[in-house]
Each structure stands twice: as structure tokens, then as C-alpha cells.
Design a protein that fits this description.
Oligomer: single chain
Number of domains: 2
Bound molecules: (4S)-2,6-dioxohexahydropyrimidine-4-carboxylic acid, zinc ion
Radius of gyration: 22 Å
Strand order of the largest sheet: 8-9-10-11-12-13-14-15
CATH topology of the largest domain: TIM Barrel
Length: 481
Amino acid sequence: MSYAPKEVDLVIRGAQVVSPEQIIPASVAIAGERIVAVGHDDCMPPARQEMRADGLFLLPGAIDSHVHFRDPGYPHKETWKTGSAAAACGGVTTVFEMPNTNPPTGTLEALALKLKAAESSYVDYGIHGLLGDDTIANLEQLLEGGVSSFKAFVGNTFGNLPAPTDGALLEGFEILAPLGIRTVVHAENSSIMARRQGQLQAAGRIDPLAHLDARPAVAEIEAIGRVLTLAEWTGARVHIAHHSAADSLFLLRQAKARGVDVTAETCPQYMLLNTEHMRKLAGVMRVNPPIREPRHNQPLWDALVEGVLDMIATDHAPHTPEEKTRANIWECDCGFPGVETQMPLMLTEINKGRASLMDYVKWSSVNPAKAWGLYGTKGVIAVGAHADIAFVDMARAGTLSQGRLQSISKISPWHGRSVQGYPIHTLLRGRFVMRDGHLVTDAAGWGRNIKPIQKMPTPKPRNTEHYSGAIVKASAHESQS
Ligand code: DOR
Ligand code: ZN
């Protein structure tokens, strides 16, 4: 009896498939939403559609752990439809969206509004719920309702959500640790920053660099240290958002060495921009944490290469041109769009030889998939995985232009920057959401919540070696377990 393989939906031929270990010439067959074969051209099953991708690289679709799509609450800045369109056009197939919307995503009612807005998404998504003093009682029901993870705004930022008290943070971690759920932390010390900002304002400073002066690196060092202390004590998984300072990397390095389950992201702006750009771009570049002096750029890059930082996220945080260009720096909203420009910016650096494409997929897709419990289904081009693929042309050169962004807020510090290396098609679960550089508009709504496929691994027992036996035994934590 001869074996007749079933016809599949799509076979992609002629490309190179990228993973952290290798770049290999291979064809990829897709049936429905999943990859069913990766291998030699001659071994592909018959397909309804054949596609040549000669000269292109196939990367697992990028997973951006940090976007603000502003919906509900600020639809004049961004909506799920426009934000996710930007993701699709940036080679990003999954996003994790932040809770500083209005209402903030800390109650079931607010979550319902967010899930409704997300129905128009072009890309798959996870929802970070809010961990704050007022939401501790809601954490478990938010998880049941569809959030994948939590966010604690330990440093103040857009939305002005009060920072959780240390007591609430500890309690939140105690609830989430046994569940294996990871909490994203905006790690800056609010009290240091409020006091500094007050002094700078009283002295009449309104210039762009006053923003950096109000948020010194020690605010990040202190907050990361505090969060890691509580995470280590409770065994909670944490994720440091937008790591900005070279000076706080040692804390991550040490905590990881002791077995703390901490992951961390940085963003292109912290590696590629600095105070030199701030003088010219002023409020357009205002963001929290601030973009710092040039001396921070290279150590952040090196930390990614070393694995102290795990991933690239964007902190896609759109505000309108009017909100970004006021003369007084304190009146400029913090943040800017990024989900659409991350891949060309990073590929440009890869083209310059600063790291390999294999490194890049680790930072853009593999490590985020692992951090959020998606790896295997996402983050990899392999049999059984979702067919989430960014088709990348490393030779294509161009200039980033804010006017062409999918975001509503068409203002970006990257405007006018030369890049080489673009995603040109984006496939999400077998369906193109971007093709030949154009959004596939009828794919709006194809995106889904990743919650049903999320599998956070069982947490490992805490490493308590460096605590004294007496303290560990006397703690409330130990007596509970
Ligand atoms: O600059 C920022 N803007 N940093 C954040 O952490 C939040 C963001 C926003 O939501 O606008
Ligand atoms: Zn953010």
C-alpha cells in the first residue's frame, strides 16, 4: 500500500528557517492553524497553495510582552484595531497588553470591556491584569476571567495608578507564587521621583533633560532590588519591564544565579537612543523609565547577549503628536509607539553584526514564549506549533516614517532613521495578517486570547540556602507551607 499524504493548505519553499540553534534551508507545510512539516523540499505534502520565499528568512512571529493599546479609555491615542495592525505590520504575532487603561484592568467588569475591545485584534494577545492594593482580592477571579499575568506599577507613569504598597505587593506575590503566574513590574521608586520632580519644577526646570534628572538610575536599582527581595522570599515569578539602566543589571545577574525566576526585557530605545537624541527630540522621546546617557546603551545590548536580559519588548505607548510636543517637558505625555518598528530596528543591528539572527529570535520570540507559558505552541517553527511566522528580508533597506505607521498616534523618535531588514509578510495561525508590506484588512478579529493555550510550568521549590535557617523557620511563609 502506498502512502498518500493529505493535501495541506500552504507550503512555503525556498526560505531559511531560523531558531536559536541554527539557520537551515527548509520548506514549511501548514494545515489549518498549525505547522505540519518542516523539512526538505522533496518531502512536502501536496498543497492547495504553494509559495516561494527564496532569499527570505522565516522567524517565529515576534512576541511583544509589553504594549499599551489604550482601549478602553483613550481611543484617540490607539485602539486594539490600530495597535494590533501595527503589530501585524511589524512581524509581531502575539502581544501582551497592559492594564493602565480606563478603567484599569483590575476588576472583572473592566476585563470584560478589554476583552470586548480585543475582539478586533489582528494578532493573538495575552492580558496583563492590574496588581494594586485595591485589586489583591480580585487576582484569582481575573485569572479565571482570562488574564494571563499581572502588572504592578511600582513606578508611577501614564494613568497615574497608585503604586502598590510593599505590603500589597508581598501579598500579591504570596497569592500568585503557588499558581506559577508571572507579574510584570514597572520598577522605579515613586517616592524618589516625586520628590525630585517637585524640586526640579520648583527650580523652574522645564527642559527635556529635567525628566531624566527626576528619575535617576538609583530609582530603578532600588525598585528592582525590592521586587526581587519579595519575589525571592515568596517564590513568585516576576518580569522586569523596560530595563533601562546599566547600573541595575547586577541585581538580575545575582538573582538569576540564586535561582530566582526573574525574566527581564529591554526595549530598542534604551539600547539605540540616549541623551544626545533627547536634546533634539525632547518630548517625543519622553518615556518612563527615561532614556539615559550614552554609557547605558552598550551594556544593555551586552546583557541581552549574555542572557541577563531575556527579551526585547517595545513598551508601545502611543500618544498624539499634540500630547508629545508641548514646550514644557512635564506636560508631554510619556511613551511612544514601538511595536511596528522594533523588528526593522533590531534587524538593522543584526545586519551590522552586533548579534546573529539566531540570537534575535531568542529575544524576540523564544524567550517571551517561555516566560508566558506558550513555548512549543508559539515561539518556534516546528511540527505542531502554531503557524506564526515573520517572513524577513534582510536585504531590504528603507527609512522609518512616522506618517506610515498603523498607529493612530503618528509620532515617533525613530522617524527618518535608516534601517535594513524588514518583515514583509506576517502569518498568524496559518493566515496572513500582513502581506507584501500591507495590512490584510479583513484579518481584523483573527487574533485570539492566548489564555487557553497558556501552560505555566510548575514552580520549582525556592532556593533558601542564603537565608539563615532560623529566619526561614520563623517566617509566616514557611509555617503556611
Ligand atoms: O512612558 C511610559 N508610558 N512608560 C510606561 O511605563 C507606561 C507608558 C504609557 O502607558 O503611556
Ligand atoms: Zn509600558
